[in-house]
Design brief:
single chain; alpha/beta; Rossmann fold; 15 helices; 18 strands; ATP hydrolysis activity
Length: 463
């Protein structure tokens, strides 16, 4: 039993409302599922009554929670939980993509004690249909509560709460650091928590005989790499080639960037398995991408947005690479939490330009330990790189052929050991010039990147 489970389960079973904060991968899912299943076993519900409702901010997280809950219910000989998520397709028979009518029919035929879903689909069913009886609901769980309460779900949640009994147990679960905990405290009353017990499971390290709190698991090693903007993609490609046999998750800033970089890297790195994932993909494609990434025994790379930053549990993720820093610095902790889960070791890498290097100090102030990428990594920049002072991008000097001024300049991308890595920028340019689809995707990626970069919460650094 993990510390968060040991602290939460007895209180939840004793009919206490709880607000739980713990680092990613610490076992929060079982911390609320075990009391929920115990409550269902104690009290017999009628066929059309629901005993527990678990809300998740994304479909992927809801599906993951459903899989864990289903296994637990089978072991306890309970009915399988009902999964209620959007992204429906009338021709699909999958529980995760079927229409509302199929969900209602499944509930009427079988009856389900536990409901797991996203706010939009749950509200749709509770407000428009009178099939599910929530009058005897025992537990309401808000998983990744800070996202549910801050990303436009406020009105939807209020609509759901009006249809639930006030005499219930409510649990808020989050991995958000304590520095951003104020928003959760504001919502405890509105979410129906009465005198909640606050559980904060902190991670501490012993350095020089002093105990220091940190926001990430101790088994996770965080690195950063500083390089010119126009070298980032080449260094990422070199990194993915060197780690092609490991599971790697790469975070980009926008959905359009995922589409463009994903297509380009598939062409330029044919030996590396790359799967895209973002919120604008149709649900079936999102599921297929996650399924292929999970089942790839020889490694693989998941190129994604922050849709995969919260709660997703993929076993044996070796590296989390943040090609673009998140708009909200709080999401750094959630992104890197995809690795080093359940006590396993893992690594993370953050790409920054020289103008963004102050972000490292900001993260350290937020109790995130970082260190430079080891020189043993081939993508690590050359220490004594000569930088042109007048170049806004901070690019390395380029070799020019004075005998032919019209010939394109050749850029040297040097490694820390003095060797060079391939500059893939010209190849990307060729793809854009020769394929209209690449051109359109590249245009959308550039536009969306500029807009997202402009909206960074840390605008004093990212400007």
């Amino acid at each position: 039993m993990t510390p968060v489970q040991a602290a939460t389960i007895p209180l939840f079973l004793a009919s206490k409302d709880v607000a739980v904060q713990a680092v990613t991968g610490s076992g929060k899912t079982l911390a609320f599922l075990i009391p929920v299943v115990e409550a269902i076993l104690r009290k017999k519900f009628k066929k059309h009554q629901a005993g527990a409702l678990i809300l998740s901010p994304t479909r992927e997280l809801a599906q993951q929670t459903h899989a864990v809950a289903a296994a637990l219910c089978r072991h306890c000989q309970l009915k399988e939980p009902l999964l209620l998520v959007g992204g429906s397709s009338a021709s699909s028979s999958l529980a995760s993509t079927r229409p509302v009518t199929a969900d209602l029919q499944a509930f009427q035929e079988t009856g389900h004690d536990i409901l797991i879903g996203t706010p939009g689909r749950v509200e749709d069913i509770l407000t428009k249909y009178s099939v599910i009886d929530t009058s005897e609901l025992e537990y309401l769980i808000l998983d990744e509560a800070d996202v549910l309460l801050n990303l436009g779900f406020a009105i939807t949640l209020q609509s759901i709460l009006k249809r639930l009994p006030k005499m219930r147990r409510t649990g808020l679960f989050s991995a958000t650091t304590s520095s951003t905990n104020a928003s959760l405290k504001e919502w405890t009353g509105r979410a129906g928590l009465r005198n909640p017990v606050w559980i904060d499971v902190a991670v501490t390290t012993n350095v020089a005989e002093t105990r220091t709190a940190q926001a990430t698991p101790t088994s996770l090693t965080n690195y950063f790499l500083v390089c010119p903007l126009d070298e980032k993609l080449s260094r990422l490609a070199a990194f993915l080639q060197d780690h092609s046999t490991e599971k790697v998750i790469v975070f980009c800033l926008t959905c359009a960037c995922v589409d463009f970089y994903g297509n380009a890297l598939k062409v330029l790195l044919p030996t590396v398995s790359i799967e895209p994932l973002h919120g604008k993909m149709v649900q079936k494609r999102r599921e297929k991408s996650m399924e292929r990434f999970r089942s790839d025994a020889e490694g693989g790379t998941l190129l994604c947005t922050d849709v995969a930053a919260r709660g997703l549990d993929v076993s044996n993720v070796n590296w989390v690479v943040q090609f673009d820093a998140p708009q909200d610095p709080a999401f750094y902790v959630h992104r890197v939490g995809r690795s080093a889960r359940a006590g396993k070791s893992g690594n993370s890498l953050l790409f920054l330009t020289r103008k963004e290097e102050a972000y490292v100090d900001l993260l350290k102030m937020r109790k995130v330990p970082l260190s430079p990428l080891p020189s043993s990594e081939r993508c690590c920049p050359f220490i004594y790189e000569n930088v042109e002072e007048g170049n806004d991008k901070g690019a390395t000097k380029r070799k020019t052929d004075k005998s032919n001024e019209e010939e394109p300049t050749k850029r040297t991308i040097r490694c820390n050991d003095g060797s060079e890595i391939e500059d893939i920028f010209p190849k990307v340019k060729e793809l854009v010039l020769s394929d209209r689809d690449f051109l359109e995707k590249g245009t959308k990626a550039f536009t969306s990147y500029i807009r997202a970069y402009k909206e960074h919460h840390c605008s004093f650094i990212f400007r």
